[in-house]
Specification:
8-stranded mixed β-sheet; Polyketide_Oxido-like; globular; Rossmann fold; 34% helix; NAD(P)-bd_dom; 212 residues; two-stranded parallel ribbon; alpha/beta; biliverdin reductase [NAD(P)H] activity; riboflavin reductase (NADPH) activity
């Protein structure tokens, strides 16, 4: 039986990489959820579905989540409200596995000068991402919170991970590498269950990303 995977925010760059890693896997059935189908560029293949809707619209979300095995959310904006809506709908529909992308810094886990720089640059956004992270962690679902470092478009898949109680040091990671990590969880849903996981490129440490 195929594993049914819903991708919320399927038009995003990381999600596009996840789709690329999974779309030819015959054991996976993908559903793409997007706000505007006309702007969606992923190739639809046999075994994929497309839903146009709004995550904060209860009927749209109900329709999308019903019958899924895994929900992967890669969203921006009112992510705290979205986390509340997604977790509530999943519990109502009996769907347990959630992968939810937030940000480095939500646990105040980025130490030293890099942490100070990160908080100065994205501190306002971290408030919502931190709230969303707490909502997911308190949901009772089988979740993985994914906390990527500063993102690049490099064509590479190298990454290392840290857990919630470990310092976050790496200053960058490619979107493709984050996509590879998320695809690996989808293929092995027991991986990093009930965990908040930092994702960064190995060996790239400093006071801020080199590209900034």
């Amino acid at each position: 039986m195929k594993t049914k995977v819903l991708i919320l925010g399927a038009g995003g760059a990381i999600a596009q990489h996840v789709i690329g890693f999974l779309q030819d896997n015959k054991d996976i059935e993908l559903t793409f959820f997007v706000r505007n189908a006309s702007h969606f560029s992923a190739n639809q293949t046999l075994g994929t579905h497309l839903i146009e809707g709004d995550v904060l619209n209860e009927q749209d979300l109900d329709r999308a989540i019903k019958g899924q095995d895994i929900v992967y959310a890669n969203l921006a904006g009112e992510v705290d409200k979205m986390a509340t809506a997604i977790t509530a709908t999943m519990k109502r529909k009996g769907v347990k596995r959630l992968i939810f992308v937030t940000s480095l810094g939500v646990h105040n886990e980025v130490a030293g000068k890099f942490g100070e720089w990160n908080n100065r640059i994205i501190g306002a956004e971290l408030v919502r991402y931190s709230k969303a992270t707490k909502i997911v962690e308190a949901s009772g679902l089988d979740y993985t919170v994914v906390r990527p470092s500063w993102l690049t478009d490099k064509d590479e898949t190298d990454y290392e991970t840290t857990q919630k109680n470990e310092p976050f040091r790496g200053t960058e990671v490619s979107r493709k590498a984050v996509g590879a990590y998320i695809a690996a969880i989808i293929l092995d849903p027991a991986r990093d269950s009930k965990a908040s996981v930092g994702v960064n490129k190995p060996g790239v440490y400093g006071d801020k990303p080199d590209f900034y």
